[in-house]
Design brief:
EC number: 6.3.4.18
Largest sheet: 9 strands, antiparallel
CATH class of the largest domain: Alpha Beta
Organism: Methylophaga aminisulfidivorans
Number of helices: 12
Helix content: 25-40%
Number of strands: 18
Bound molecules: adenosine-5'-triphosphate, magnesium ion
Shape: globular
Protein name: N5-carboxyaminoimidazole ribonucleotide synthase
CATH architecture of the largest domain: 2-Layer Sandwich
Structural class: alpha+beta
Order of helices and strands: EHEEHEHEHHEHEEHEEEEEHEEHHEHEEH
GO biological process, one term: 'de novo' IMP biosynthetic process
Domain ATP-grasp: 111-297
CATH topology of the largest domain: D-amino Acid Aminotransferase, Chain A, domain 1
Distance between the termini: 55 Å
Length: 379
């Protein structure tokens, strides 16, 4: 270990969302101070940090102010302009690097990078103009999904396509922005690997997580998974290879599809802690956010072993009706740990919180998790 940054130091966080908030909480628990740079005046992380610099991500004066006060800086948001990180890198310690972030910001660049490592992705075609559409059937077989290449999240900017005609109209409705057309994989399962990689290249994975998405948004995560050890080990190996290929430092995640044919297919990389790693907050010795602090500060990784089977359920704005959800219902179950992010407005599809259910088995945790979820929805 070289020169670890120790408690009492000040860490910087670019982005003020829930991932930033949970980083701030972990860092403060360990005795660090945190300064958040985020343009929204009332963000979940900004309101609990020691200081909130309310500014745009490309505001050089604000970035200078952040760098002047921070011993190291990280991010919670993959769409921070990589020039912002490049600017900060000249002034202080920054992880992940601007180059690692840049490789994950465009779906075409990301898929080309994953393929270059010999790891399978869904067959895809890059689409930058209408002429590219005419030849897509040389690369993919329908049905497919057209996804905008940059700034997509939680299934936003995605259109299912049954034929080339659908691709033309979807490309049109996306304003002819650069896209990727992905072949639709017949999914048996979806899993993710959240891991931490240190400055000296040591990789510490968390237990593999099994994910269920509804309408393109994560609904639940279960650990341990129901996939075989062989598939699980393959996913971890591939995630390790991706982290090393990016020379990544910090906590990151790789989402995988397990096809009906039993292939492991990398879907996407998250250069930050991940929603499917929220189970670690209550069910692992070390959370993905504590691990992010440890990696940023060049400390050794914490123990990632699982304390208990767990199911995490996301709480989207959809469960807010005319009144707030029935929290008493959630909190009356002693096995449930509730996490609310403190967002001011509950919009449909917006991630507002989550809860973890710890039980003797995943199936028991899932039963309790879904029972509670069905009673939660307000009118
Ligand atoms: P997030 O950032 O929240 O993960 P996203 O907008 O980046 O979301 P994707 O991960 O690309 O979205 O897709 C969301 C979900 O849609 C996937 O987890 C999967 O359930 C489904 N999906 C996406 N692409 C494919 C595909 N090629 N084949 C089958 N299902 C897919
Ligand atoms: Mg995804």
């Amino acid at each position: 270990m070289n020169n670890p940054i120790l408690p009492g130091s000040t860490l910087g966080m670019l982005g003020g969302g829930q991932l930033g908030k949970m980083f701030v909480t972990a860092a403060q628990t360990m005795g660090y101070k945190v300064i958040v740079l985020e343009p929204d005046a009332k963000s979940p992380a900004g309101v609990i940090a020691e200081q909130h610099i309310c500014a745009a991500y490309d505001d050089k004066d604000a970035l200078q102010l952040l760098a002047d006060q921070c011993d190291a800086i990280t991010t919670e948001f993959e769409n921070i302009p990589s020039e912002t990180l490049a600017f900060l890198e000249k002034l202080t310690i920054v992880h992940p690097s601007s180059t690692a972030l840049a490789s994950t910001q465009n779906r075409n660049v990301e898929k080309a990078f994953i393929s270059s490592l010999g790891i399978a992705t869904a067959p895809y075609a890059k689409i930058t103009n209408k002429d590219d559409i005419a030849t897509v059937e040389q690369k993919i077989t329908f049905p497919a999904i057209l996804k905008v290449a940059t700034f997509g999240y939680d299934g936003k900017g995605q259109f299912p396509c049954e034929s080339i005609t659908d691709v033309y109209s979807a490309f049109d409705s996306l304003g002819e922005k650069e896209c990727v057309l992905e072949q639709k994989i017949r999914l048996a399962k979806e899993v993710s690997v959240v891991l931490a990689r240190s400055q000296s290249g040591d990789v510490t994975p968390f237990p593999v997580a099994e994910n269920v998405h509804i309408n393109g948004i994560l609904h639940s995560t279960s650990v341990p998974t129901s996939i075989s050890n062989t598939l699980s080990e393959l996913a971890v190996q591939q995630a390790h290879k991706i982290a090393a290929g990016l020379d990544y430092v910090g906590t990151m995640a790789v989402e995988f599809f397990i096809s009906e044919e039993g292939e492991v297919i990398a879907n996407e990389i998250a250069p930050r802690p991940h929603n499917s790693g929220h189970y670690t907050l209550d069910a692992c010795h070390t959370s993905q956010f504590e691990q992010q602090v440890r990696m940023l500060c060049d400390l050794s990784a914490g123990n990632t072993s699982l304390i208990s089977p767990v199911v995490m359920i996301n709480l989207l704005g959809d469960v807010w009706g005319k009144t707030v959800p029935n929290w008493q219902e959630v909190l009356s179950n002693p096995n449930i740990k509730l996490h609310l992010y403190g967002k001011h407005e509950a919009r449909k599809g917006r991630k507002m919180g989550h809860y973890n259910v710890l039980a003797e088995s995943v199936s028991q945790a899932m039963t309790e998790a879904e029972q509670t979820f069905s009673k939660l929805k307000a009118d």
